[in-house]
Amino acid sequence: MSKIQRLTSLSNDQLKLASEVLSNAFKEDPVFSKLIPNNKERYKTLFKIFKFQIKYCLKHGVVLSTSNLKGISLWYPPENVFISIWKSIKNSSLSLIFKIKWKNLHILRKNDDFSEDLHKKLIPDPHWYLSTIGIDPKHQGKGIGSRMISFMINYIAKDQKTIFLETNSEKNVKLYKHFGFRILHKVLTPRTNIYHWSMIRCD
């Protein structure tokens, strides 16, 4: 069984592999599929966005992975829950404008704005944020996601802080409930008929 570990850096090849893992994990995501219907465009867009997000989280959050990089999760501590414009610029987010079709970038940015605005309204107090968790499709169902969640729950326990997350999958809602999360809010994602669940876990 591959070990869960905290990553502090990644080589270019490892960063590429980690970005591929998240892109493959989310390529059939209901919201992404709705917003970017073309499969090839969706994968290329997700790859570039996840590559940026992993690099950003390595500097400002906690990146967990299996020892073979088949599962990745991105977590942010209370002081870095929301991605600041300045930090994003320092991490070359402006380059995304030239790497991703404007139409797709605009659609995803509007979806991010919806999620972030809701996040800020629902939980203004200090908390940890599980931003992303994805498992290589070939390795799903092996408990990797559960072990990463357990790892971070134990890691965060000493701070006695709330953990916040979002999902568009009812199947994931059931998984998170198993770890003590409860539904804080449920709403339809704009421009889709897909539900957006906001969940929290409090010690």
Structure description:
This protein has one domain: Gcn5-related N-acetyltransferase (GNAT) (Aminopeptidase). The protein is globular, with a radius of gyration of 16 Å. The chain has helices spanning 12-26, 30-35, 39-60, 85-90, 96-99, 102-122, 144-157, 170-178; strands spanning 4-7, 62-66, 71-76, 127-135, 162-167, 182-188, 195-201. It has eight helices and seven strands, in the order βαααββαααβαβαββ. α1 packs across α3. It has 203 residues and is of the alpha+beta class. The chain has a seven-stranded mixed sheet, sandwiched between helices. It starts with a strand and ends with a strand. Helices cover 48% and strands 22% of the residues.
Short descriptors:
single chain; 203 residues; Aminopeptidase; 7-stranded mixed sheet; 8 helices; 22% strand
Task: Give the strand order of the largest sheet, numbering strands 1, 2, ... along the chain.
Answer: 1-2-3-4-5-7-6
What is the highest CATH level, the class?
Answer: Alpha Beta
CATH topology call = Aminopeptidase
Q: Mind telling me which CATH architecture this is?
A: 3-Layer(aba) Sandwich
Low-confidence stretches: none
